[in-house]
Write a structure and sequence with these properties.
Blueprint: H1 3-14, H2 21-24, E1 28-34, E2 49-52, E3 58-62, H3 69-79, E4 81-87, H4 97-113, E5 118-122, H5 129-142, E6 147-151, H6 165-173, E7 177-181, H7 197-216, H8 219-222, E8 228-230, H9 232-236, H10 241-247, H11 250-253, H12 269-276, E9 277-280, H13 290-304, E10 310-311, H14 323-334, H15 338-344, H16 349-352, H17 356-359
Helix pairs in contact: 1-12, 3-14, 4-5, 5-6, 13-14
Length: about 375
């Protein structure tokens, strides 16, 4: 690593975390909970099933708990979670404005029906610029949402596609953070068409690809106020940083002049990982052994990405479905040490949602 880049990285690592009202109140915010309005819920209403794509690959869990907001509240009460940030899988990559509006209206209803317990994210037809901008503004101004959720790929396009630039600009202009969740389908790579590899590994690979394309495209340089949260520690990308840093040295790998492969952002790579992007700590998959497996996943993730950029998440009711299991997960993560406790207690929560204290106040 060049000396100047090393000095900048070391300086970034030493910067103190900003003041955090939420942490001082010991209110746990779960930045990844999923809710599907009952009218959109698919599958058997009495048991967990799985949706298959046209190639017979499982690509989304059909879970009746997705529509049970009272169950979400009971889970949070049992686990000691103050509030959950809601998103809907049916809206991650939804081209139909009417469906997006229905989801957003039901999200607002969830917030109103359970004061202080839920924070809702917007869902928009991302590749329809006029419709997306209008709905995004409605969600920010009329419905009061602090962010928007999109999939790690949209209608087969990468997140740095020029067609998505209007969405990114609109989010930044409205001061909305963008939550990026794995695409609700299987990557079109036949070697993943067995052993549930599409969900097991493909989703995480998609998150890592989206992360690097966003950085190298210059999007974060173009929009310096934009806040982006990647699910699942961005697919566990921290494990690959030693490799990524190496290949980013384009001159040393023969790609500096190669179209599409020589891109580099304006600042050192670690600036974006440690100062610009946010991550949630979900990504492990239960639904059982939540304390053991979840804590192992979080331990590794916190060793590889900046604490100042990481928020707590459960991925309820998909990765974990039982309130007792969630409670075990919360306790096991807190037991990992002071950094993990700080993350659970919201060390970075207000950096994504600046008015968080007002939103979770129960009136």
């Amino acid at each position: 690593m060049p000396q100047q880049e090393k000095l900048e990285r070391d300086a970034d690592a030493k910067r103190p975390l900003p003041a955090r009202t939420v942490r001082s109140q010991n209110v746990i915010i779960d930045f990844q909970q999923h809710y599907t309005p009952p009218e959109l819920l698919k599958g058997d209403r009495s048991t967990v099933t799985v949706r298959l794509d046209e190639n017979g690959n499982p690509n989304y869990l059909l879970n009746p708990l997705l529509a049970d907001l009272a169950g979400h509240v009971r889970m949070m009460d049992r686990a000691g979670i103050g509030a959950g940030v809601l998103s809907c899988g049916s809206g991650f990559d939804q081209p139909d404005l009417a469906v997006c509006r229905l989801i957003n209206d039901r999200m607002r209803q969830a917030v109103d029906d359970h004061p202080g317990r839920f924070i809702a994210l917007a869902h928009v037809p991302a590749l329809k610029p006029l419709e997306a901008a209008s709905e995004l503004k409605r969600c920010a101004v009329e419905l009061g949402f602090p962010g928007v959720v999109i999939a790690s790929e949209l209608q087969g396009l990468p997140l740095d596609a020029e067609a998505l630039r209007p969405l990114w600009r609109a989010a930044a202009d409205l001061n909305l953070y963008v939550f990026i969740h794995p695409l609700p389908q299987v990557i079109a790579w036949p070697l993943l068409y067995a052993d549930d590899l599409g969900r097991m590994l493909g989703w995480e690979f998609s998150l890592m690809v989206a992360t690097l394309r966003i950085i190298n495209s210059g999007l974060l340089d173009e929009l310096p106020s934009l806040r982006v949260q990647f699910a699942h520690f961005s697919g566990g990308i921290g494990r690959y940083l030693g490799r990524i840093r190496g290949f980013q040295q384009r001159d040393l790998w023969g790609t500096a002049a190669v179209p599409r492969h020589g891109r580099r952002p304006q600042r050192p790579l670690d600036h974006y990982f440690e100062q610009r992007l946010f991550y949630d700590c979900a990504g492990w998959a239960g639904p059982n052994h939540a304390g053991e497996w979840g804590a192992d996943w979080v331990r590794s993730g916190l060793a590889e990405v900046a604490l100042s950029q990481t928020v707590f998440a459960t991925d309820y009711p998909q990765a974990v479905r039982d309130a007792g299991e969630v409670a075990d997960y919360v306790a096991a993560v807190r037991a990992l040490g002071p950094d993990a406790r700080a993350m659970v207690d919201g060390a970075s929560a207000e950096r994504l949602v600046p008015d968080l204290a007002r939103r979770i106040r129960q009136e």
